[in-house]
Amino acid sequence: MIIAGRGFGKTRTGAEQVRVWAQDYPLVNLIGATADDARDIMIEGESGILAICPDDERPKYLPSKRRLEWPSGAKSLIFTADEPERLRGKQHMKLWADELGAWRYAEAWDQAMFGLRLGDNPQCIVTTTPKPRRIIRDLVADPDAVIVRGSTYENRDNLAPAFLSKIVKKYEGTTLGRQELHGEILTDIPGALWQRHRIIHAEAPEEIRRIVVAIDPAVTNTEDSDETGIIVAGTEADQFYVLEDLSGRYTPEGWARQAVAAYHRWEADRIVGEVNNGGDMIESVLRQVDKNISYTSVRASRGKAVRAEPIAALYEQGRGYHCGSFDALEDQMCSWTTEADWSPDRMDAMVWAATELMLEPEISTDVWAVEL
């Protein structure tokens, strides 16, 4: 397993290993975090298989059949971690698993390991950024796993100067930089309201009683602006489920369209928007996209920590679930403290959603005021 920072050369190493294996083994399979990642990074990417193979070794890519056919006669079946059931019963001699830390379902790894059973020496190469998920921690602790670590700086001669001067400089010395540049597996941060081991990943229940889309809008829309937090969440019985994270940097029309589309896609009960920054503008922009949505505005009357504490308590009680791999959200949850000088927009949106779904009115109105 190669655990390293961005730009270290993980993808190139994985692709080269597959190329070597395909010369001697007839079945060398690939698993990407998503179907798009398998195609755009592992196969067609700048450091992917098609780019690094010499002409006489380059495989034929058959996207409709989800496989590569090599000149040696070997085949590579292409899988996505988003479809763990497709891996059930499939067998592998050699396997390349990319960005394991970002896989939505841990079951995909289990199914892959059940199938790694052919040939004289079944092996898997894992290339991943070190997300602090249990599956990564377990592999690091596995005595049979060979762990290779590295940082972005070790490959700086092959990286664009602009990347080094802007991106690397921006994140050096930050918690995110420790993970994304230096390849560290982050542990819990003192003062953070959430601990990673408290976040339970599970599939969404078949029946969800209520669903909301929560928005924490950014004030500006520039390269350096905060993100707009957009979280879809639902509840069933006394459990809370994060279903989708659509947060990002958008124009007002952009985040409104994202939120309204999620509202219809999930058949949500309402959209919840924080109005401290945007005021009445939020509802106005949303209704320009769809005037018929059900909407509630909320206003923060207390600090972020006070609002977040009852929601963090739900996670401690084992009542908060994430139905997917929401790495950016979880990074904010587990790294934001009251001393932080940055805005946890995804976390804020998640807290608004959970408050709307889980807290009784007499409790929740003490935390935020609903404008009717």
Short description:
By secondary structure, the protein is α/β, with parallel strands linked by helices.
Describe it.
α11 packs across α13. 40% of the residues are buried. The strands form two sheets. An eight-stranded mixed sheet has the order 3-4-5-2-6-7-1-8. An eight-stranded mixed sheet has the order 9-15-12-11-10-13-14-16, sandwiched between helices. It starts with a strand and ends with a strand. By secondary structure, it is an alpha/beta fold. The chain has 14 helices and 16 strands. The chain has helices spanning 10-21, 35-43, 49-52, 84-87, 107-115, 134-141, 161-171, 175-180, 252-265, 281-289, 304-316, 327-335, 345-358, 361-367, and strands at residues 2-4, 28-32, 60-62, 67-69, 75-80, 94-98, 123-128, 148-150, 200-201, 210-216, 229-236, 239-245, 270-274, 295-300, 320-322, 368-371. It has two domains: 2-170, Rossmann fold (3-Layer(aba) Sandwich); 196-371, Nucleotidyltransferase, domain 5.
